[in-house]
Amino acid sequence: MLAITFAYIEAVELVNYNKLRYFYEAGRTLNLTRAARNLYISQPALSKHIADLEGDLGVILFVRTNRNLVLTRGGEVLMEECARIFECEEEIYRRVRSAASIDGVRVKLAFMGIDAAYRIPDFLARIGEKWPHISIETQRLNWDRVYDAVERGTADLGLKLSSCESYPEHIGRRVLREDHVAAVLPAGHPLAGAGSLRLEQLKDEPFVFLTKEESVIPHDHALRMCREAGFTPNIVASYQNVETVVMMVRAGAGVALLSPFAPLGGLSGVECVPLTAAPEITLDLLWRKDNPNPAVGLLVDCAGRFDW
Length: 308
Fold this sequence. Notes:
There is one protein chain. The chain has helices spanning 17-29, 32-39, 43-57, 73-87, 89-99, 120-130, 143-152, 216-228, 242-250, 296-304; strands spanning 62-64, 69-71, 106-111, 135-140, 157-162, 171-180, 182-186, 206-210, 234-239, 256-258, 270-274, 280-288. The chain is α/β, with parallel strands linked by helices and 308 residues long. The strands form four sheets. The protein has a five-stranded mixed beta sheet with strand order 4-3-5-12-6, sandwiched between helices. Strands 10-7-11 form a three-stranded antiparallel beta sheet, with helices on one face. α6 links the parallel β3 and β4 (135-140).
């Protein structure tokens, strides 16, 4: 249901949707004859609808000249409000049709091993409450693999971190959260209690990295950060997934450059310390814009309102 509030109306009145449509076409063409032809009604009928609307609102909407119409200030404001309705009309129809065609639909969701992954069960429960007939299949993948799955169509949606990446035009992106790269240190490390660090303070530390083969972007990004800080990191070990990196930091094998999105929630023995002037990291939901699955748009909208 669409509700419109007009600041210049002292009393709230129910305005007939068709009257607004007739007014909008007249305001768009500024010609009663042309507007009536476009609406497939007679010109006298159109004139009556507009007069009725002016009576409902208590506002003159048009000044009639010999040839055309001229919008009054009240008419201009109403045109702006009507544009908001009718410009999204097709989107409303699309969403209604999509909602009516989701029974038995299966959605494949790929995600990374990040703290937001622990919120997925709650997100799925929310979906189940709203659309119980949507079936969601989840798959845990590494950084680059999530995008690849969306690109190839083996996943309908991809939940992943992004760091300064740009995506092709056919890939949709919804940013769900934002944060910055941080240092992950063992709890007993002398710098673990610092409020923030400069990356160069870690130049003599052993580093635990994600493997380049499985996580090209975070590996190269961390390496570039160190070099821009004036040193080449001493990488003592590399692992395929972020959970193993965090556990090795906890065991004292070294420090890591990850983000607060890393799966650290409730884990003792490690500290995530912010880095000054650190690059931004975003939690993104990706999908192909040409994906015909009718549930994708619904889940994207729901994810955008979910607390990740």
